[in-house]
Specification:
Elements lengths: L6 H10 L21 E2 L12 H15 L19 H8 L6 E3 L3 H12 L8 E5 L4 H13 L4 H4 E4 L10 H11 L3 E7 L11 H9 L4 E5 L18 E4 L14 E4 L1 H4 L43 H16 L2 H22 L5 E3 L12 E5 L3 H10 L2 E2 L1 E3 L3 E4 L8 H12 L2
Parallel strand pairs: 1-11, 3-4, 3-5, 5-6, 6-7
Antiparallel strand pairs: 2-8, 7-8, 9-10, 10-13, 12-13
Helix pairs in contact: 1-13, 2-10, 4-5, 11-13
Length: 422
């Protein structure tokens, strides 16, 4: 598509946008003068769907009116509440319904997955990650390595950008796997790098790992609800994600996990068990059946009952995804938003900055990371003062993530104008 830097062109793009009506389904934070912020921080916390309040209040009303009886209410029973989002989450990550479960937080889910899939031996004990990885993933991985009696300093293998480059070269993944393959027990990557916005080829990484008998798992925090995923088809072993970013489920919202069906149906796998992972037919026999009998699905990794009040807002957001046509139409608009922003930043010839997110459509999501040679924090502060909400990562990166459900092309135009201002 041929873009124009004229403001009228941004209005034209908005008028032609088939998803423009969804913006009205969200609460938009306001500036001090009562105007909506330019909110490009959905990669940190998505906006609140307006219908979330009613769903949460319904569950509060259920609590007030029925108390424990609401667990078996005919209207969204709490006992099986996680099943209400199963089909929609499976669709978003490209999985079968029995391969996904909504539970816990991302890092808790990562530990649960590693308890099953990281089974180090004396000869095969290393874990391969990207650098920089999100710190919480690194903490979890290092603690798992140490928990098994190995040294994180030698057992953690990192794939880094080459000198004077900001993003990772795909061939370096396979090179690292080839070099360390006989010692690697697992590969754990963020599907989209939190700092650079680079989207990795999960199919290729999975295939390269599994050729050497290595488990392949992914952190989808910046990918779920952002880019199309086909975890089952790609043969991914496991994945985890949060839902407060692009899934707009609110602060501290419940997370999720994927376990490929070849593992999910294997009830002999070791795991950290809890009563909601137990077969529902014997779950309440308690003292009569003290042995853990795992469900033959991803539910077997569920250790506790569903957190109703943190799961309810996710239902509101997933309804909007479904109404928007799942990921295909959202991805089309996302690519247009980011391509337009990249064009405007280039057209303005703003000195001292570089978009370090890869330009290829298959190599990024909604986030563009803007690297400043210097004074990046000053530019970020000017954006905030002008009514923009994005974020800054030390020492010099501004992250902007226009989200297709609620951001506009005119907001992209205004953002670029503000960034170019002296």
């Amino acid at each position: 598509m041929t873009f124009s830097a004229d403001e009228d062109f941004s209005h034209q793009l908005d008028a032609e946008d088939p998803l423009r009506q969804f913006r009205e389904q969200f609460h938009l934070p306001l500036t001090t003068n009562g105007q909506p912020l330019i909110y490009f921080a959905g990669n940190s916390l998505g906006l609140m769907p307006k219908r979330a309040r009613a769903i949460v209040e319904h569950e509060l009303d259920q609590w007030a009116a029925q108390a424990v009886g609401a667990h078996h209410s005919p209207d969204a029973p709490w006992y099986s509440y996680h099943e209400l989002v199963r089909e929609q989450l499976a669709s978003l990550v490209g999985a079968g319904p029995d391969e996904v479960v909504c539970m816990n937080s991302l890092t808790v889910n990562l530990h649960l997955m590693l308890a099953t899939f990281y089974r180090p031996t004396r000869s095969r004990f290393k874990i391969l990650m990207e650098e920089p990885a999100f710190p919480s993933d690194t903490y979890a991985i290092k603690s798992q390595i140490a928990h098994h009696g190995f040294d994180p300093g030698t057992a953690l293998v990192l794939v880094r950008p080459r000198e004077r480059e900001s993003t990772l070269r795909p061939e370096d993944f396979e090179l690292a796997i080839e070099q360390h393959g006989e010692q690697l027990a697992a590969v754990l990557f963020g599907a989209i790098n939190f700092l650079t916005g680079q989207l990795f080829d999960l199919r290729a990484i999975t295939a390269a790992a599994q050729r050497h008998g290595i488990v392949a798992g992914f952190d989808l925090a910046h990918a779920v609800g952002n880019v199309p995923l086909s975890l089952h088809e790609w043969n991914v072993d496991f994945a985890v994600w949060c839902s407060y970013k692009y899934l707009n489920a609110g602060p501290g919202a419940v997370a999720g996990a994927f376990v490929h069906e070849r593992h999910a149906t294997n009830t002999a796998l070791p795991r950290l068990a809890g009563w909601f992972g137990n077969d529902p037919n014997t779950r309440f026999q308690l003292h009569l059946q003290p042995e853990f009998i795992p469900v033959a699905s991803a539910d077997a990794w569920q250790v506790s009952n569903p957190p109703i009040l943190s799961m309810a807002p996710l239902r509101a957001s997933l309804e909007l995804f479904q109404e928007a046509g799942a990921m295909e139409s959202l991805r089309a608009k996302s690519l247009k938003l980011t391509s337009y922003l990249r064009f405007l930043l280039t057209d303005n010839s703003t000195g001292g900055l570089e978009v370090i997110t890869p330009a290829e459509e298959t190599a990024h999501g909604s986030q563009l990371s803007i690297l400043y040679e210097e004074k990046g924090k000053g530019a970020f502060q000017r954006l905030e003062e002008a009514g923009v909400r994005c974020d800054f990562r030390e020492p010099n990166v501004i992250r902007a993530a226009p989200a297709p459900l609620y951001n506009t092309f005119h907001e992209v135009w205004r953002f670029a104008q503000l960034l170019a201002a002296p």
